[in-house]
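Hi V.,

You were right to ask for the full record rather than a summary. Here it is.
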Amino acid sequence: MDTVIGIRREDKNQWERRTPLVPEDLAKLIQEYGLRVLVQSSPIRAFSVDEFLAVGATVQEDLSPCSCVFAVKEIPKELFQRGTTYVFFAHVMKGQQYNMPMLKKMMALKCQLIDYEGIKDSIGRRLIFFGRHAGLAGILDTMWAFGQRLAWEDLTTPFQELKQAHQYPSLDDAKQQYSDIGKRIKSEGLPAKLCPVIVGIAGYGNVSRGAQEIFDLLPVTPIEVEQIPKLLKNGPVDCHTLYKVIFKEEHLVKPVSPKHRFDLGDYYQHPEKYRSKFEEYLPYLTVLVNANYWESRYPRLVTKTALKELYSGTSKPRLRMIGDLACDVDGSIECNTHITDPGDPVYVYNPFTGESSQGVGGVGPVILAVDNLPCEIPQVSSHDFSKALTPFVPAIAGADYSVPFDQCHLPDEIKNAMILYHGELTPRFKHLEKYL
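Predicted structure:
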């Protein structure tokens, strides 16, 4: 196979150090499939130029010889080459307006666009993703911010010793600290005025599992949603544990009509028939971790109205922290007012004024809104992502893109993720026309 593929440098921000394909997997593609690989140098990538050179890749700025270019995040629209196939997280599937100019430019240049988000198996499960790593980094940042908020309140806890994900030398170092702190909580306990510490996690997919992988290193007692009110009502509470509750769809919404019962399939097909009921659980939670996929057709998880009511009560709310790992601005967590980055990751949302202020101090919950969390653990996230992507690369690189779309021989998983072909929206993505 005499084909040239490119690996673009990431430049979303100074924290984006990932790569879609790591050197050891490129070695296999070069040796076994005869691919030529051009890699742009980067001063921040978590893998050095020498590592790419050692496996036979060429490091150069110009990627114009490449028939296919792989990246992680969005590519600036002025960098696209006519007729080239691009593979990256485009963030256009929901009709995101901020990326429509990019999509239009790709259309004008007759490009192909394959989006990792659309690469799924026959039953709709995503095959190439950073979900677990968003959960890992997200819970690290959430619990760090939680500890900082408690310190601002003059509540001394072991949580204030935690770090952000990117501050740990490795994921193993982070896990070790959580294990150590967990032992202290188990033996010494937490301040009585804070207890019980109830951490709610909305969602049970890859992001949620990643978050729980870290969180469960602490002394955790899982409880069912129905047990939450009883925990506070019946007392006394245990200050030597943290209570974890997983929220599924049936806990988040209820049918608009009292005559109907919740049905998961019906909810996915007709979300307009349901409304949020999550506000009934907010008063009990200390920390909320949102790990749920969301689209605008679904009810919100946390509304501004619900937060205003919560903070208007006579007693101080228990809720200190919302880690929005899904990170949809004005989305499922309506008080997510803007995206942040690891350098300044959190802000406080004031439910009375609707304004946000950076940091952990102020009236209202602290909001974590970093939209590229896996970049904080770039080595481990890149390795896992590359391992999943590599088997598809030969087919993507070797396909004949000169033929009509229905004659282009690609695996179904890839073809179903093709948003643009010859610069035109493919049948599966024709609905994006209304956003253009």
